[in-house]
């Protein structure tokens, strides 16, 4: 944990599972109690705060850039309810609203200030909704292959309907097809060795696979959450600096252009031949771009 860990409340130790050796996950992870949930939180490095939010998979997605950024930043990531090493939750509790409340609770519990929010996929929704009541704690936003608005259009909504369907969820529970695809070169696997790939797949438990599809299904219907985010983006939040990072081969709905229209101060990065996980496709490039952008737009590094 970072040096100001004394501010953390309601923490419990989390034992390291055998399938997650230090050779593939070199960080310590602790449990943060938020009501009836225990979130698996990783907090490493010193410097300006980067809070990484993804909803659906688990924190392993951030490993390669956190390993590089933690030399100059305090990097914090966590598993949203029902995924990874966070405590199991019932089906009725798996929602983007609950994930957003987890973001709020984590920021308040760790007393994070002047943070940069780094979001990916459905983490865009959970992260933005989560900082809405405490937006004064945020200084910048990094959006990686994500969106922050109500889905429109038959193709976009149709994709969410397909991946969020109960049939697709149960097929994935039985076959594990989505984690296998995600662990391939089309997902996070471009630079993974065999041990790392095994660890990622082990973290995609049956509960986690169910939760992924339930989060996707919820993305079609969480109108209250979309209303809160829209209010946030209409206010002063859209004057914060924004860095967008998208894979060259994975922006079928034009999200990166939409982000540019929403924020006045936008820097765009396209990862050559990148797919849905640009931070895994080119961790060195993404780390370097984020470092330069933060120094020039958010604030100097602390030494």
If you had to describe this structure to a student in words, what would you say it looks like?
The chain has 303 residues and is an alpha/beta fold. The protein has a single domain (5-151, 223-294), classed as Alpha/Beta hydrolase fold, catalytic domain (Rossmann fold, 3-Layer(aba) Sandwich), CATH 3.40.50.1820. It has helices spanning 63-69, 96-109, 123-131, 154-163, 166-175, 177-182, 194-203, 206-218, 223-234, 255-262, 278-281, 283-297; strands spanning 11-13, 29-34, 37-44, 49-55, 74-78, 115-121, 138-146, 242-247, 266-271. It has a nine-stranded mixed beta sheet, sandwiched between helices. It is globular and about 45 Å long.
Which percent band covers the strand fraction?
15-25%
Distance between the termini: 18 Å
- CATH H level, superfamily name: Alpha/Beta hydrolase fold, catalytic domain
Quickly name the level 1 CATH class: Alpha Beta
> Helical residue percent?
25-40%
Mean pLDDT, to the nearest integer, reads 94
The CATH architecture assignment turns out to be 3-Layer(aba) Sandwich
Q: Low-confidence stretches at least 5 residues in length (pLDDT < 50)?
A: 1-8
Summarize the helices and strands and which ones pair or pack.
Layout: E1 11-13, E2 29-34, E3 37-44, E4 49-55, H1 63-69, E5 74-78, H2 96-109, E6 115-121, H3 123-131, E7 138-146, H4 154-163, H5 166-175, H6 177-182, H7 194-203, H8 206-218, H9 223-234, E8 242-247, H10 255-262, E9 266-271, H11 278-281, H12 283-297
Helix pairs in contact: 1-12, 2-3, 5-8
């Amino acid at each position: 944990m970072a040096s100001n860990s004394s501010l953390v409340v309601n923490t419990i130790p989390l034992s390291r599972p055998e399938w997650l050796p230090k050779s593939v996950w070199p960080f310590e992870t602790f449990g943060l109690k938020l009501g009836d949930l225990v979130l698996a939180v990783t907090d490493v490095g010193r410097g300006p705060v980067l809070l990484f939010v993804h909803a659906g998979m688990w924190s392993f997605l951030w490993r390669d850039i956190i390993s590089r950024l933690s030399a100059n930043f305090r990097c914090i990531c966590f598993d949203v309810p029902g995924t990874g090493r966070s405590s199991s939750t019932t089906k009725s509790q798996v929602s983007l609203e609950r994930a957003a409340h987890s973001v709020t609770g984590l920021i308040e519990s760790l007393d994070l200030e002047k943070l940069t929010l780094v979001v990916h996929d459905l983490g865009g929704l959970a992260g933005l909704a989560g900082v809405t009541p405490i937006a004064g704690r945020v200084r910048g936003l990094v959006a990686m292959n994500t969106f922050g608005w109500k889905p429109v259009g038959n193709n976009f909504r149709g994709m969410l309907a397909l991946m969020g369907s109960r049939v697709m969820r149960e097929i994935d529970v039985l076959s594990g097809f989505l984690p296998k695809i995600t662990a391939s070169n089309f997902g996070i696997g471009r630079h993974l060795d065999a041990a790392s790939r095994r660890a990622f797949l082990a973290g995609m438990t049956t509960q986690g696979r169910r939760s992924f599809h339930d989060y996707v299904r919820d993305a079609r219907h969480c109108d209250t959450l979309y209303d809160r985010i829209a209010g946030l983006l209409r206010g002063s939040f859209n004057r914060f600096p924004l860095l967008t990072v998208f894979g060259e081969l994975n922006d079928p709905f034009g999200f990166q252009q939409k982000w540019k229209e929403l924020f006045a101060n936008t820097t765009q990065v396209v990862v050559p031949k990148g797919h849905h996980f640009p931070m895994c496709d080119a961790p060195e490039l993404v780390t370097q771009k984020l470092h330069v952008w933060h120094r020039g737009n958010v604030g100097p590094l602390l030494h």
